[in-house]
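We emphasize that the prediction below concerns an isolated chain of 237 residues; any contacts that depend on oligomerization or on bound cofactors are therefore not represented. The input was used exactly as deposited, without trimming of termini.
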Amino acid sequence: MNISNGNSTARMVDYDIHGVVGVRLVNPSERDAAAVVGQLGPAHAPLRREPDIVIYFREKLPTPGLIFLGLNSAGYNDEGFYILRSSKADCKARIPFQDIGRKKLEIVCESGLRSVPLLIALVNLTFLSKRYLPLHASAFLYNGVANMVTGWAKGGKTEGLLAFANHGAAYIADEWTIIAEGGDECFGIAEPIRLWDWQFRHIPHVQDKISRQKKLLFKSIHTMDALGRGLGKSPLR
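Result of the prediction step, given as a C-alpha cell string:
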C-alpha cells in the first residue's frame, strides 16, 4: 500500500494480527519487509483502524551523543533509547518503551536490519494491554479440544505439536499462544516453524519438501561433526 501526501509517497505494509493488534511498516525495503515476515509470518492485511505499533524505516538513523549500555548492545541519548544488536547482528532501532500499551508505539529503525529488535515481545505486551494473555507455548486442536504445550526453549513445544500433527491435530501456534480473556478463544502468532534435521525422522512426509541441496548440507554437517569427534578421541603423539 502506498500513501501520498502530495510531496512524497510512503510505502506501507500492514499486519492485522487476529483483529486485535495492528502493526504498520512505513517505507520498508524489500529486505526489511522480509525480515518482519520472518518474525510475524505472512499476516498482511490492510488495517481499518489505527495501528498499535508503527515501525518507520530510514536509510540512516543518526545517534549523536550516544551513551552506551553494555558493549554495543544498547544506548541512549536525548532522542531516546536505542537497541544496537538483534539476531546476532548490528542494528539501530529507537524504541519508546514508555509508550507500550499506553498509546501508539512508534519505532524507528535503520533499514537493512536482520530483524526488528524485541518485536514479538512488543506485540505480546500490546496483547496483554488489551486483556489477552500471551503464553510461551505451542497449541493445537485435537478431537475438538484445544491443547497447549508450555516450556522453555528446547523444552519440547514443537515436538509435542508435531507428534499430535502426525495423528491429525490442527495447528494453532508453535511458539506463542494468545488466550482471550475468559479463556474461550486462543490463537497464535504465525511465526515460521523452525525444525531440526533430526525431527524429520518423525515426520517423514515432510522430507519430500526439503531441497536436495539442504539434505546434502545436513549430511555434510553430520559427517564433519563425526570426523571432529573422532579426531578428538585420537591420542596425541
